[in-house]
């Protein structure tokens, strides 16, 4: 009886830990940093000296990080979907644009083609595909922004809430377990994102080539 109970416990543990199959990428298409970040060579890092990635994050192809405007701090286990843009927010004063640093917490997932101009994204936040998070928004920890949501400027998304719609509005509350689930999801996505062992290695010269880092005028960021 004891052995069968132990076997059942092991089987249950495997079921709970199931993450699905790996998602393979071509190692030649990504740069992996010492801290475990996986950054696509097809991403654009503007002002890379002002961009901080804490570690174990994924930056997909087509992502634009606008560090040329202000500091951009990104936490651990942050997944940034293809074609998304992270651009520090600004405020216009006497005809001049003043940009503010942007902070993204740990265990955050950002869907493809989303445009983020928030002042702050808290930890354990899920932002769906095709979202627009307008300037100076604050998305607090353990919250969810549904796909296709447009948050107007200065919107505050409280902790443990769901926002959605166009314009985005409060749709309901989330359980206390949201933080644990989001941590598990973000970490699972990172673990499953693995280099394809069958892909051919890139030539040494190509492997050394960093992601595109292009300067961009502030006026473009303000108008976009």
Automatic annotation (TrEMBL):
Ranges where the record places region Disordered: 200-224
Q: What is its main location?
A: cytoplasm
Q: Which CDD domains does the record match to this protein?
A: LbH_Dynactin_5 (cd03359)
- Where found, per UniProt? Cytoplasm, Cytoskeleton
Q: Which InterPro entries match?
A: DCTN5, Trimer_LpxA-like_sf
- Could you tell me which SUPFAM superfamilies the record lists for this protein? Trimeric LpxA-like enzymes (SSF51161)
Sorted UniProt keywords: Cytoplasm, Cytoskeleton
Q: What is the similarity comment for this entry?
A: Belongs to the dynactin subunits 5/6 family. Dynactin subunit 5 subfamily.
Recorded hits in PANTHER family, A to Z, give:
DYNACTIN SUBUNIT 5 (PTHR46126:SF1)
The protein in question is named Dynactin subunit 5
Species of the source: Prorocentrum cordatum
């Amino acid at each position: 009886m004891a052995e069968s109970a132990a076997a059942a416990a092991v089987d249950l543990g495997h079921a709970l830990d199931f993450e699905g199959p790996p998602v393979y990428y071509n190692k030649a298409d990504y740069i992996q940093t010492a801290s475990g970040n996986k950054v696509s060579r097809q991403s654009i890092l503007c002002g890379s000296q002002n961009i901080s990635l804490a570690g174990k994050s994924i930056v997909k192809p087509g992502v634009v990080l606008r560090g040329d405007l202000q500091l951009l701090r990104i936490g651990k286990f942050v997944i940034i979907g293809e074609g998304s843009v992270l651009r520090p927010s600004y405020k216009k004063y006497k005809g001049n644009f003043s940009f503010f640093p942007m902070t993204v917490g740990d265990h955050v997932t950002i869907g493809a083609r989303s445009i983020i101009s928030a002042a702050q994204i808290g930890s354990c936040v899920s932002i769906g595909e095709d979202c627009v998070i307008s300037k100076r928004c604050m998305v607090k920890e353990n919250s969810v922004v549904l796909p296709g949501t447009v948050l107007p400027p200065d919107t505050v998304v409280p902790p443990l809430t769901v926002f959605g719609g166009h314009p985005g509005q409060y749709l309901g509350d989330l359980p206390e377990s949201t933080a644990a689930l989001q941590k598990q999801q973000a970490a699972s996505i990172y673990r499953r994102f693995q280099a394809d062992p069958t892909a051919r290695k890139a030539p040494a010269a190509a492997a050394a080539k960093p992601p595109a880092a292009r300067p961009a005028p502030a006026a473009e960021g303000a108008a976009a």
